[in-house]
């Protein structure tokens, strides 16, 4: 570490000043500034992250996640991401505001112990700071120490005031809905091959493919048209959100046979499967709101089961693109499926799939329940025929 520190001092000098904008005072009267600061002015030694200690009741930050840090390090090294959002810092020393004069932030005065003895406290943005520290210390000090970070810095706030701002930032922020995230991810991947390459490295390329399949089924499919709630759509008459349907396709897309099919073949197979099911349970498809077949539980279980059903069909020499194949293979298993509804009655066949309290399928809505449900159905399927 000492050698790295020496290399950093030779490779990078903290500028004496940086231009900043003085913002309005916080409700507490604390002054704040905003601008861009080189990473080397903060890392590796001039900052502190106030982690929460349950024994002393001091601090407020959550422990860092190494996976997030390492992922950001890899993305920054490959120039795959930007860091446009500001980190939030604080200098607790009450004299810190004296380092701001005439639109300049005098960083050289922060380095002098006679002026200020405290580091930057990281209120929000710890993973970005820790990732940049790793880049500075372990990779290229000259390059990453010069990397400009957008920042907002409070001057003279107390730990309690930091905690207030931390709570506001982290409790008011709203994450992007999963369905919108998938849709945006697909658009990015289609525009930029580098995005798809990154997803392949992380084993997430299936999400882009699944989103494309779901959109096509929702917009043009004979069985699913108008029933999938795509990003930014009102619920209306839809039976399930697109994000749930995208996730349900993961077992299929990661299976050797289905995953190797062309997009057109995948759509045809899914269409044939659901049309085969509709032939067996017409009432459930005519009134989808009254059954769980086309809702989260049913779709997740049936798509997981489809991996095995496809292999059974192939072993019997049946076409995987023919709805009759699925009607034939599932007729007996679906008739034998039974469970107990909320009234304590045993229900089977079509009645099993009714919504609660008359049906039993809805009781398997948890992750563990879906696994049990899938296992129950799998046991009822015909065996794969050996060659």
Domain module tally: 3
Order of helices and strands: HEEEHEEEHEHHEHHHHEEHHHHHHHEEH
Q: Unreliable stretches, pLDDT < 50, 5 or more residues?
A: none
Distance between the termini: 62 Å
Query: Which structural category do the helix and sheet elements fall into?
Result: alpha/beta
Give the number of DSSP strands: 12
Q: Overall 3D geometry?
A: elongated
Sheet with the most strands? 8 strands, mixed
Query: What's the total helix number?
Result: 17
Give a topology summary:
Blueprint: H1 2-11, E1 17-22, E2 31-38, E3 47-48, H2 66-77, E4 87-91, E5 100-101, E6 104-106, H3 107-110, E7 120-124, H4 126-138, H5 141-145, E8 148-155, H6 159-172, H7 178-191, H8 193-201, H9 205-220, E9 228-229, E10 240-241, H10 242-248, H11 250-253, H12 256-260, H13 263-280, H14 282-286, H15 296-315, H16 323-336, E11 338-340, E12 346-348, H17 367-380
Parallel strand pairs: 3-7, 4-8, 9-10
Antiparallel strand pairs: 1-2, 1-6, 2-8, 4-7, 5-6, 11-12
């Amino acid at each position: 570490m000492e050698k790295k520190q020496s290399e950093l001092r030779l490779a990078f000098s903290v500028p004496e000043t940086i231009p900043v904008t003085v913002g309005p005072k916080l409700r507490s009267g604390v002054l704040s500034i905003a601008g861009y600061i080189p990473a080397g002015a903060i890392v590796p030694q001039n900052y502190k992250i106030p982690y929460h200690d349950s024994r002393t009741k001091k601090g407020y930050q959550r422990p860092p996640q190494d996976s997030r840090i390492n992922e950001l390090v890899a993305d920054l090294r490959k120039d795959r991401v930007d860091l446009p959002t500001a980190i939030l810092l604080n200098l607790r020393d009450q004299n810190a505001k004296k380092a701001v004069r005439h639109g300049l932030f005098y960083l050289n005065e922060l380095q002098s112990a006679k002026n200020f003895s405290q580091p930057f406290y990281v209120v929000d943005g710890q993973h970005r700071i820790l990732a940049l520290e790793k880049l500075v210390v372990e990779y290229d000090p000259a390059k990453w120490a010069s990397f400009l970070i957008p920042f907002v810095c409070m001057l003279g706030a107390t730990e309690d005031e930091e905690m207030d701002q931390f709570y506001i930032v982290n409790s008011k922020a709203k994450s992007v809905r999963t369905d919108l995230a998938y849709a945006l991810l697909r658009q990015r991947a289609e525009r930029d091959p580098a995005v798809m390459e990154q997803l392949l490295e992380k084993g997430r390329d299936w999400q882009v493919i699944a989103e494309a399949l779901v959109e096509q089924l929702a917009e043009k499919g004979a069985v699913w048209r108008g029933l999938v709630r795509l990003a930014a759509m009102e619920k209306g008459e839809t039976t399930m959100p697109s994000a749930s349907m995208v996730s349900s396709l993961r077992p299929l897309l990661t299976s050797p046979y289905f995953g190797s099919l062309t997009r057109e073949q995948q759509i045809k197979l899914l269409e044939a499967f659901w049309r085969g099911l509709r032939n067996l349970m017409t009432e459930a498809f005519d009134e989808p709101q009254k059954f769980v077949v086309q809702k989260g539980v049913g779709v997740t279980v049936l798509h997981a089961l489809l991996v095995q059903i496809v292999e059974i069909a192939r072993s019997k020499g049946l076409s995987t693109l023919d709805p009759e194949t699925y009607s034939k293979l599932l007729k007996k298993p679906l008739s034998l499926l039974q469970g107990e509804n909320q009234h304590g009655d045993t229900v089977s066949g079509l009645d099993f799939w009714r919504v609660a309290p008359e049906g039993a399928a809805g009781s398997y809505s948890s992750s563990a329940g879906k696994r049990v449900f899938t296992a129950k159905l799998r046991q009822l399927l015909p065996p794969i025929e050996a060659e």
